[in-house]
Each structure stands twice: as structure tokens, then as C-alpha cells.
Amino acid sequence: MKASPALTLNKTLRGYQFSTIWADSLTIFWGEWLKLRVRIWQIAATGLVSPLIYILAFGLGLGSAIDRAITPTAGENYLEFILPGMVALSSMTISFVGTTFSICGERLYNKNFEETLLAPVHPLGLHLGKMFAGIVRGLMTSGSVILIAILFTGNIGSFVNPLFLLVLVLNCAVFAGLGVIVGLNVKSLESVGLYNNFLIIPMSFLGGTFFDPATLPKILKGIVYLLPLSYTSTGLRAAAYLPSQFPWYSIPVLLGFAIAFCLLGAYQFAHQQD
Known about the structure:
This protein is mostly helical. It has one domain (5-270). It contains 13 helices and no strands. It has helices at 5-8, 18-36, 40-46, 49-69, 78-110, 113-118, 123-153, 156-159, 162-185, 189-206, 218-224, 228-241, 250-270. Helix 3 (40-46) packs across helix 7, helix 5 packs across helix 12 (228-241) and helix 7 (123-153) packs antiparallel against helix 13 (250-270). It is elongated. The termini are close together.
């Protein structure tokens, strides 16, 4: 289905004021929020299962043996070391999967996605609105993991500080933006499973959630630092325990990923044929 004439008149940022795009994105986000607010607790708990299992199995189970062998590079023990990684993991998973399934459901099952494309809204506003909803999903779930981390460590300041929250929001933006793009391109829910199995799950283990990427050989380190989750895990860990050693490069890298996905998503919306 072709986009409306209002959208085809000008698909670029030229001639559009920032305030117009911002208003468009908030309009789209408000529609998503009306659906999210009735499922707040469900969303908050959805992404909590896997991190909690990892915390119990790796942090408490395997962690006791690791603590006897080595001293973690951040935190007092291995459990504390992986807690920021679990926050990164939960925010990535829900931001990506929740956004992808939301758009995929609208396109393939509810059949109301055409109404979104027909709305006189700039393509970048469409992407940002969907991405904002994904950020909220990620923050809901990661907030639950942060609460668990505080209960285990008893340190609120480590997990609730401006630097920690900034990296967390950027991570949600990156994977929500990626989820929008995937949601616009998949042809079935089975395809979503493929992206999850071949992209999200490998990144969960290779993205620095369970280890310090700085300790890897150069070749493996180069591969790991191609993944945006690696910058989130190391950034959250430093923000929680070693703020003086915070890797400031992680912020522009994550912001660069988010902007790139925004532009790609806006282009996809402008050429979407559903």
C-alpha cells in the first residue's frame, strides 16, 4: 500500500522544523503508551526471568568458584561484576523483542499498520515514536533488574546515578531502533525468532555481560567491540563501580548507533509498502 500524498511530498528533513518532527514522534509515542500502560507490570516482569536465572546460576553458583580463582576487575565479587551486564542484557532484549513484535503484530495480524503509514506524520517522527515506546519497555524491565541488583549489593548509588542511567537509555534507544527496522522487514513471527537466535542471543553472551572485554586477545577483542552491547556493559560496569575509569567513548558510539538506526528506520518508513 502506498504512502499518502502528504508523506510523499517531502520525505526528507528539508523544510521540516525540529518541533514538527518532535510533535509527530510524541503523537506516535502517545498511541503506543496507551497500549503499554495497561501492561506495565507484565512488561516489567517479562525480561526479568533470564537475568534472574543468570544471576543465580553464574553469579551465585559459578561465581563462588570464580571468586576463589580470580579477582574481578570491577565490583567486590563476580556477582557484583555481572549485575550491570544483566541490566544491559534485559534492556537490550525487551527493547528489541518488544518493539519488533509490536510492529510485526500490527503489520501481519492486526492489519492496522496501514493507518499509521497514512497518517500525515514525517517518517522520522514515526520511527522516533516507535523507538520511544521501545525505550520505555526496556527501562521498565531493566528497572526490575536494577531493583534486584540493589537488593544484592545494598548500594543504590551504584545503579541509580546520571551516568549509569544515560548509558542505559542509550542502549534502549539502540536496540529499540534496531527492533523498529526488523519489525518493518520481517514477513512472519518465525523470522523474528531467527533474528533473536542469531543476533540477540549470541550478543547476550559475547557483549561483555559475563566477562571483561579488555582481557581478551586482540582479535577477539576487535570482534566483541563491534557489538553495541559491549559498550553498554563496560559503560554500566564502570558507572556503577569505577566512575573515574569510565570509558567516555562508549557514549558517542552508542549515540552513533542510535542515530544510524533512526535514519535507516526513517528511510524504511518512507518506502514501506505494507
